[in-house]
Amino acid sequence: MASAYIVFIRERSVDGDALARYSALVPPTFAGRNVNFHVAYGRQEVLEGPEADGVVVLEFESWDEARRWYDSPEYQAAIPVRQGGATFRAILVEGTA
């Protein structure tokens, strides 16, 4: 079974307070889940395409586990807070086996 990754690309921040609230809401959504943070707003250089404010890459054991986290009531409650703080792209992608 291949791992799956959710890539969050923060394109433009609009409300730092909302982003701070989102940052406090998200950690509990990972309770009991096997998730690895590979990237979390580290140093970046955009080589192609539009600029990005930041990037997060999460690894899950499988596509289904990534969807279960994203679709969970706990994370769904956090999404509007994130969207109020910035414009994001969220991409689910399957890794290689």
List keywords for this structure.
Alpha-Beta Plaits; globular; alpha+beta; 4-stranded antiparallel beta sheet; 97 residues; single chain
Would you give an account of this structure?
- The chain has three helices and four strands, in the order E-H-E-E-H-H-E.
- It is of the alpha+beta class and 97 residues long.
- It has one domain (4-94): Alpha-Beta Plaits.
- The radius of gyration is 13 Å and the shape is globular.
- The N and C termini lie close together (6 Å).
Q: CATH topology, what is it called?
A: Alpha-Beta Plaits
CATH architecture: 2-Layer Sandwich
Please provide the count of β strands.
4
The residue fraction in helices comes out at 25-40%
Number of separate structural domains: 1
Strands side by side in the biggest sheet: 2-3-1-4
Beta percentage is 25-35%
Could you name the ranges where pLDDT drops below 50 across 5 or more consecutive residues?
none
What is the C-level CATH assignment? Alpha Beta
**Could you say which overall geometry the principal axes of the C-alpha atoms support?**
globular
Distance between the termini: 6 Å
Q: Which structural class fits the helix and strand makeup?
A: alpha+beta
Estimated radius of gyration: 13 Å
How many helical elements? 3
Order of helices and strands: EHEEHHE
